[in-house]
Amino acid sequence: MGCVQSFRELCDRPKNTNVRISLPAVCIVWETAMIILFGIFIRYDDDSDSHWIDDRKETNKSDMENEFYFRYPSFQDVHVMIFVGFGFLMTFLKRYSFGAVGFNFLIAAFGLQWALLMQGWFGSLGPDGKIKIGVESLINADFCVASCLIAYGAVLGKVSAVQLMVMTLFGITLFAVEEHIIIHIIHAKDAGGSMVIHTFGAYYGLSISWMLYRPNLNQSSRLQCSVYHSDVFAMIGTLFLWMFWPSFNSAIADHGDGQHRAAINTYLALASTVVTTVAMSSLFQKHGKLDMVHIQNSTLAGGVAVGTAAEFMLMPYGSLIVGFCCGIISTLGYIYLTPFMEKYLKIQDTCGIHNLHAMPGVIGGIVGAITAAAATESVYGVEGLKETFDFVGDMSPTKQGGYQAAALCVAICFGVGGGILVGCILRLPIWGDPADDSCFDDEHYWELPQDEESTQPVLQYNNHMRNKDVIETTFNMQQT
Amino acid sequence: MGCVQSFRELCDRPKNTNVRISLPAVCIVWETAMIILFGIFIRYDDDSDSHWIDDRKETNKSDMENEFYFRYPSFQDVHVMIFVGFGFLMTFLKRYSFGAVGFNFLIAAFGLQWALLMQGWFGSLGPDGKIKIGVESLINADFCVASCLIAYGAVLGKVSAVQLMVMTLFGITLFAVEEHIIIHIIHAKDAGGSMVIHTFGAYYGLSISWMLYRPNLNQSSRLQCSVYHSDVFAMIGTLFLWMFWPSFNSAIADHGDGQHRAAINTYLALASTVVTTVAMSSLFQKHGKLDMVHIQNSTLAGGVAVGTAAEFMLMPYGSLIVGFCCGIISTLGYIYLTPFMEKYLKIQDTCGIHNLHAMPGVIGGIVGAITAAAATESVYGVEGLKETFDFVGDMSPTKQGGYQAAALCVAICFGVGGGILVGCILRLPIWGDPADDSCFDDEHYWELPQDEESTQPVLQYNNHMRNKDVIETTFNMQQT
Amino acid sequence: MGCVQSFRELCDRPKNTNVRISLPAVCIVWETAMIILFGIFIRYDDDSDSHWIDDRKETNKSDMENEFYFRYPSFQDVHVMIFVGFGFLMTFLKRYSFGAVGFNFLIAAFGLQWALLMQGWFGSLGPDGKIKIGVESLINADFCVASCLIAYGAVLGKVSAVQLMVMTLFGITLFAVEEHIIIHIIHAKDAGGSMVIHTFGAYYGLSISWMLYRPNLNQSSRLQCSVYHSDVFAMIGTLFLWMFWPSFNSAIADHGDGQHRAAINTYLALASTVVTTVAMSSLFQKHGKLDMVHIQNSTLAGGVAVGTAAEFMLMPYGSLIVGFCCGIISTLGYIYLTPFMEKYLKIQDTCGIHNLHAMPGVIGGIVGAITAAAATESVYGVEGLKETFDFVGDMSPTKQGGYQAAALCVAICFGVGGGILVGCILRLPIWGDPADDSCFDDEHYWELPQDEESTQPVLQYNNHMRNKDVIETTFNMQQT
Fold first, then answer.
1. E strand or H helix at A133, and its extent?
2. A92 touching C, CB under 8 A?
3. What does the DSSP 8-state code read for residue B91?
């Protein structure tokens, strides 16, 4: 830890948030690189190429058999989760809504291009050296981006757009390697990405946040809170994530019963989570009042935790149990764990992704391992068992369970290791990140409109007359 | 009415809005009960079970024939209507947006679990005592929940979360019985639920509101209005309801032409409603200005009214006529009927569900009865007539029309009767409901952020200097 | 120009924004006309008629072969773009959110009915004199309406609802003729409507705005800006447009690979646009801050520009290049061209549709022409080439390219010519448009709630004490 310490001192210089050169340079250079790499590597796959008609006539297929019709509605739902869901979920801060929804937009749009390349190189590079993309590739690219958006939640308001671009570039690279190991080498199943997406993304973000620890962040504390309308905006994000999570977990599941079952399991787990989140939120607050932070975030934990097992025969009551537990654990995390982590572990987690993605993700990995290990032919059917787990050779449910557990470890290691590495890079004083008293403030990266609200600071005081000095100041100022 | 009167006196005690014990207790107990009951009763249906692959191979079916692909896009649209549509439609109150969208979220998530059980027991209990669920069950559960959310509209801002949970539990139970009678015993058709969902839900809510009449509600009148941005939030709800209503009415219609026709009819009826709503809103206001209340609500009436007949051969112009009438009736309802009902019938209807759901629902039932009675083989085709109405034995269109009318009566009776019963229960002084001067205020059930807006009450006055006293108070306060 | 000048003088009378007679009259008369015309002309098509079951049994088709399942998910996405996308995109003005989302709702709902008729008369009038409608007709009607909503963007805040109704009626009529010429006579391909929808709509709106030029519009300049929350609302519109644009461009493309490819191309072009828009926005602002106007609008330019060529074999890198260029051009348009056009060309373009729809639309037309002209059998396959371009007889790619270019000219001519014509009509002093100092203000057409914000005008001043007079006024007022 010595080198980390000295590195930290090196980086303590005055901050300059002007990204007028660095941001455009990064954007243009990377986008140009994308065009060149796409030109070399990316082509349409069989179902989206105009030669498909020959294929269709030969095999006497119906138009409907095109992969597009199996996956496109789910893809669109996932797309909404990525851009509106994650974007608006983070708008809860009173003066960082532009940054939340705008930077989310930028890194998602950039990230998905890089994801198509990385996932292609690792997953579907053909013998001709070309990557063939179709609707499933688009879904996978969105999934890949999701892990970086989760990580963004931990550092929300504390980094610049350039840092986010760097974080996304490395995050997607790491993701593609991690996913390749988990899916293609270990042969673990993870349709909803509890491990691959959520566990990895959350630990990646938390490690970065730990590396970027700001001891004097309380100087921005007046901005690290919500206002009434920003909480309502955040509910737009929450609800679109919540509603479309069944599509997220079923989007790349097996055709037919696989997708069908994944959607049902997720629907049930999420419903159960909402009820227990409300219970915990009310029980642990004075006067039993509900806290919007819990309603906005913990209600989603069930969807995360049911991700891996969603396409297994988890059974409806199993989904409810998973959701039940996650609602409780996630809410308690917000109440007890987040303050603890900030105080003792020096991890500042703006959106509480540890409670929403990390813990439920790990639970999801464990649930997946247990469900896989407990699979029997009597429950799945002989064919069904093979189909669900893609068993080849002498694989057995018990082995599969072990592999699932191994996959979970891989996801955690990649997240923590990658996060520390990238955190080091992001500490370099060249990325235009804000000073401690400028965090959570759109002012530094956005042209802001002249609001009524923002232009009345001296006249603001609360009902209980705590700020009496302010009023007197106002009055005196008016008299002179 | 004597007993009601004495019961009312019994209930007039000071209010305590602290639900710290009751809300968590209810949530945990009920969710635990759900898990046990799901464990005993609920299993995957044939299309979502992993044995489906055997079935598919036997019958040489395509993957595409899985029910999932017929209904899932519609399901997701309905899901958005339930959570974003109903939730945001009710955010129009200036200080009850958290309660609107948050409690809507809670009761919908709880209700859909109970609905799966109730509808299963009545509708699809197999010989092995198990309820098999698939994507159609999820849609039906969402439909069932919709009726309770409609009822919530009548009592919005005047009840506690615990009361809403009780109201939902009974509402869904009543719904399942009513639906069973209408669909399985009377054999009426009601794909879009004009009768089953809207008429029942609206009268259920109105009866409860009548039982919970608050003579001194005007004490909260300063909060029973909107602000500029809360009206824009409400438009999010309106538009998602409006746009996805074709999916609502077609979600469980017959495969193929049934779903297709239901979507077209609903699309047209809604378009027509918007135009006449604007006409009426402008015509009945001073200076021809439009009223957001009408635009937010009455524009949806056509979708309600076309629900029953949507899958019939209503013809495109028929849909336009239904929408035309409903836009007029619903808007006039907001202008004349809602004040009348509050003043003379003692029914306080916060969202005006009588105008948006009750009247259009009844119209929908009547339109359905007439359209069914007028059905002929020349219009429908011999096979088409049987297919559309599921005729068995000696059924004829005329008989079907009569049955449709009977179904409408059942829906109204269940709504009114059930509402009075549940209203009695909700009058018990144990549910933590707010006092008359605390209605429409999130303050009592939510941890609120410290807003600029909410902390400036003494400085507020309007352009026309009506509140001159307030200003003088402010000034004096500042001088001392 | 002499007659235009004198006509302008004729129209310079005091303004009356009361539309209490005209708006209801127009709505009721036109809606009644719709019902009569629908009664005479519109019927269900084969796939939505109850006779479909006979057809299905004869040809041994699956239920899934119904056109509904090919197009309905895309239709719903397009529907969301029309009502939420366009509606909320225009809510950015601080005091015109009701007008933006409300009038958008009205003219879209009216317009789609008229579009079904117009497009039917020109495109699908059967030998029995009936127009058969199905899900594809609904998509086309939504497309048709889109062109009028684009035009609305140019005149946002400066016209009355009655003017918008007139503008929509003529706009849709012109659209149907233009579309008929381009698609059915010239046989150009334009699945995503770069030319047919965007180019036409934008020039139609710009020409109207030119005809309605207001030299003293700066009197409303205090309202022609955004506030913090209105910019967040606008991002809802931006994101739903952005996310669902792949559905827009693929909605009426060929079944199978056509729809599939159109979605992929659009997805990629849009992703690329976001990155270059951010680069330009940062590069051309002081301190490198991003401008919300660019993020809200220019990020969509790639979707417009890839519309025509989306279903061709544009190749993934081709899509990225198109998006790359459009992000740059559109953002520069906002920075340099919009002020230039207002100052020198007397075109006041509220939403900057010239940068979002006109220029990218023209680029889209050109890209389409080049891509078509460069098509070869080696890239498309023999069957694929015929299928993609619907070649009949002696058509060749080169010819097709020429036809595509001709189509672009037709779109521009119809837009400019039609706009000037309709602009003349809209200058008549009978439509209730607002005075120059009343533009961008919901006050004149909507019953507004009593906001805290809106009722504190005299107390507002900014941090830098620029408005010191206002404060003194306030103080003096309080003392007296």
1. strand A131-133
2. no
3. G
CA-to-CA distance for A15 and A2, rounded, in angstroms? 24
Per the structure, the complete domain to which residue B42 belongs is given by 22-427
The answer to whether C235 contacts chain A (CB < 8 Å) is: yes
Q: How far is the C-alpha of A376 from the C-alpha of A378, rounded, in Å? A: 5
Tell me, yes or no, whether C459 lies in a domain: no
B180: closest CA of chain C, how far (Å): 26
Does A447 fall in a domain?
no
Contacts of C95 in chain B (CB under 8 A): 228
Using the Cβ of A67 and the Cβ atoms of chain B, whether some distance falls under 8 Å is answered with no
- Class of residue B111 by CB neighbours under 10 A (exposed 0-12, middle 13-18, buried 19+): buried
Which residues are CB-contacts of C248 (< 8 A; sequence separation ≥ 6)? Answer: C77, C78, C81, C192, C193, C266, C303, C307
Identify which of C200, B272, C238 has the alpha carbon closest to the alpha carbon of residue A104: C238
Give B42's strand partners.
Answer: B131
B185 vs A344, B122, C120, CA distance in Å?
Answer: 64, 11, 43
On chain A, the residues whose CB falls within 8 A of the CB of C271 are: 109-110, 112-113
* Cα distances (angstroms) measured from residue A467 to each of A75, B455, B456, B472: 51, 11, 12, 20
Which residues does chain B have within 8 Å of residue C62's beta carbon, measured at their own beta carbons? 62, 64-65
Please measure the distance between the N-terminal and C-terminal CA atoms of chain C and give it in whole angstroms.
56
Closest C-chain CA to B273: C109
* Cβ atoms within 10 Å, residue B479: 10
Beta-carbon pairs below 8 A across chains A and B: 250
For residue C402, being part of any structural domain is answered with: yes
Question: Tokens for A17?
Answer: 């948030």
Contacts of B83 (CB under 8 A, 6+ apart): A239, A242, A243, B104, B105, B108
Contact (CB<8Å) B68/A260: yes
> Can you tell me whether residue C28 is helix, strand or coil?
helix
- A458 inside domain: no
Query: Nearest chain B Cα to A63, which residue?
Result: B64
- List the single residue in C with minimal CA-CA distance to B262: C48
- Contact: A256, B110; criterion CB under 8 Å: no
- Count of structural domains, chain A: 1
Q: Dihedrals φ, ψ of B187, to 5°? A: 60, 35
Residues of C in contact with A43 (CB under 8 A): 315-316
Neighbours of A398 (CB within 10 A): 12
E strands, B109-233, are 131-133
Residues of A in contact with C259 (CB under 8 A): 66, 68, 72
Closest by CA to B264, choosing from A36, C347, C137, C219, is: C137
Digitized pLDDT (tens) for each residue of chain A, 480 residues in all: 455 565 555 555 567 778 888 999 999 999 999 999 999 999 999 999 998 888 888 888 888 889 999 999 999 999 999 999 999 999 999 999 999 999 999 999 999 999 999 999 998 788 899 999 999 999 999 999 999 999 999 999 999 999 999 999 999 999 999 999 999 999 999 999 999 999 999 999 999 999 999 998 888 888 888 999 999 999 999 999 999 999 999 999 989 999 999 999 999 999 999 999 999 999 998 888 999 999 999 999 999 999 999 999 999 999 999 999 999 999 999 999 999 999 999 999 999 999 999 999 999 999 999 999 999 989 998 888 988 898 887 888 999 999 999 999 999 999 999 999 999 999 988 888 888 888 999 999 999 987 654 443 333 333 333 333 333 334 444 443
Q: Which of B226, B289, B475 to mutate to test the interface with C (most CBs of C within 10 A)?
A: B289
CA B168 to chain CA centroid, nearest Å: 12
For A289-326, give one letter per residue: b (16+ CB within 10 A) or e. Answer: bbbbbbbbbbbbbbbbbbbbbbbbbbbbbbbbbbbbbb
